[in-house]
Amino acid sequence: MPAPTVPTGVRAIRPWPGDASRQVLPGAASTAVAALVGGPRLTGEVVAATRTLTAVLVDHGAGPVLLCLTGPAAVRLPCAVVTPWPVSGLRPGHPALVGEGEVRIGDESDGAVVTVGRWWRTRPAVIGDVALARQRTAGQVDRPGLDGGVVAAAGRLGLALLCGDDDELADAVGGLLGLGPGLTPAGDDVLAGALVVATAAGPRAAKRLAAAVEAAGPLHRTTAVSAGLLHYAARGLAVPQLTAYLAALGADRGDVGVAERRLLAVGHTSGAALRLGARVALAALAGTAR
């Protein structure tokens, strides 16, 4: 995926009247959030804030949707609005307004305004040759840094996808949701990797898995950021490192080694857990109808 071009000018930015101290900066938004950012203004709330990311849940009437403000060095999430530098000083609970080409966070004396002047395209992952991808991951060894409980739970997910039992699938999903520490627990990353692969290669399995994840109520079982990213994974959307890895797996001349190293470098365990979820889904698809 080509890197988005972040605008450097501020001609389109309209500062909040009467407040020169508010952070005002341009942004380049993912096409996955075009309906949110380009539509009518909707209310939201900051649910997480780190040095490189500010996550907002937006209520659009059919359940909350995640949007993230990130600096240029952060991992490129499929729902990101990329700014030239990270937005600072925000915290969970800050109110937000999203729409009409802007993201406004905080009040008139404390917050930020990001005006979207450009867009970058995010597409669902594609696996050209599923059989080849499955063959290449068949003997894969899990990264030592992954917790044994996560690896075991991932194995149960693969068996549940393979056998086609919805009750077993619900139990497997429940065992992974929220499993592990951090903003995106490893169990959720396993689910995200499996969802992306299933969406690309096994529509029936993808529908079953997405329904099981939704029925488990991720917003009540894990972090708001992780729950929001699972929503995008169900549409086949993921970080570019996973998308590139899956493309390489399914291509005759794909450089799998390079793509795999880049994926494993994502986060502390996120890349390894995404890879694990992709592998168990690919293995399960060997015994199910696409």
UniProtKB/TrEMBL annotation:
Pfam families: AllH (PF11392). It comes from the Bacteria. This is DUF2877 domain-containing protein. It comes from Jiangella aurantiaca.
